[in-house]
Amino acid sequence: MEIHQSAVILLLVLCVSFSAHGQPEGYEHFLKQHVFGAMTVQKCDGEIHRRGIVRPQTTNGCKEKNTFILADKKHVNTVCGAAGTPEGIYRKSNNPFPMVICKLHSGNTHPHCKYRGFTDTRKIVVRCEDGWPVHYADDVIV
Fold first, then answer.
1. pLDDT of the chain, 142 residues: tens digit per residue
2. Residue 66 contacts residue 33 (beta carbons within 8 Å)
3. C-alpha radius of gyration, the chain, whole number
4. What is this structure's pTM?
5. What is the three-state SS of the chain?
6. Which of 1, 8, 64, 65 has the fewest Cβ atoms surrounding its Cβ within 10 A?
7. What CATH number does residue 43 fall under?
């Protein structure tokens, strides 16, 4: 039996489409900006730069604050279901998450933004689409 190259390509396309099935467009962006279980306060500058986290609407392009949730994506996803409570168009986590919060310390323009981080434990507030988190709206000190 001979396998044709076009059959292999079709199989690869189907695998890719099934792996992303049901996830809204903003989900991967949300993960890139806010979910990193191995984050530490010492990594603020490096991770924000490596992940290309910027605020284009500002005069200097530096994002004032970025929050990294110290959990895996499966745990964060549950906030859009039973582990979250509706609050208007958002959902607030029923339980707090450990996190690293990176705040802009100095820097004139992107990519020269410098951040200082601190750890905390807070409930998260996210916007969900079709059961997936797509926007980090806020956090609540517990």
1. 455 554 334 333 343 433 456 899 999 999 999 999 999 999 999 999 999 998 866 667 789 999 999 999 999 999 999 999 999 999 999 999 999 999 999 876 777 889 999 999 999 999 999 999 999 999 999 8
2. yes
3. 18
4. 0.82
5. CCCCHHHHHHHHHHHHHHHCCCCCCHHHHHHHHHECCCCCHHHHHHHHHHCCCCCCCCCCCCCCEEEEECCCHHHHHHHHCCCEEEECCEEEECCCEEEEEEEEEECCCCCCCEEEEEEEEEEEEEEEECCEEEEEEEEEEC
6. 1
7. 3.10.130.10
Q: Would you please indicate which residues are annotated as catalytic (active-site) residues? A: 34, 135
Question: How distant is the alpha carbon of residue 17 from its chain centre?
Answer: 21
Q: Within 10 Å of residue 106's Cβ, how many Cβ atoms?
A: 10
Tell me if 65 sits within 8 A of 101, measured CB to CB. Answer: yes
Q: Token pair of 44, please?
A: 């603020």
The pair of three-digit structure tokens given for residue 56, joined into one six-digit string: 């284009």
What domain range includes position 71?
A: 24-141
Number of domains in the chain: 1
Tokens 């509706």, located at residue: 86
